[in-house]
User: What shape does this take?
Amino acid sequence: MHRRPPIAAAAFVAVLALFTSAPAVAGWGAIAYDEQSGQLGSSWNQTTRERAAELALRHCGSQDCHVHAVEPKGCGALAKSDQDKAWGGADRETLEAARKEAIEHCQTHTSLGKCAVSVSGCNE
Assistant: This one.
């Protein structure tokens, strides 16, 4: 003789299946930078814009750090010059595009140096 599971148990299994197969909420990121000291920090895949900024500022470690949010499913990068305090940042749909544009922005602000990416990443 087969016994049917209680309705509550069947409902629980159905709800559990929905939650385990649902896509994760996209996360926020942020890059913080102090152009005078060169200190920087970043965070990725945080639940809110505010949390991403808070962590990036904490990692930056300077009172003069300024933060730039990177939207969910977006990529961000910051490039710095090797000769002066020039820098450039970008956020784009792909990591390659963000890095390329950050370097290009940085190069427009320096006449002496060569710019390279110092921090980059993407949110899920």
